[in-house]
Amino acid sequence: MAETFWTQAHLDQLREAAARGVLTVRYAAGGGGPERLVTYQSLAEMRALLAEMRREVNGSPGCRLASTRKGLGA
Fold it and tell me: How far is it, in rounded angstroms, from Cα 40 to Cα 25?
């Protein structure tokens, strides 16, 4: 399995910035790498990245199906 680039800390940082309406995010150094300062073009761009980060951090394939019960007495 490939190593993920994003961490839960990155996800939390971007989510907080998006909630505050701030387009510039400072990501803490991870795995010995340098700290990064990223300025996004729009809130829509941030939201798209948040979805990608969630999939990567949570290990989901990007689509989740919900199951429901149907019928009487179920």
Answer: 8
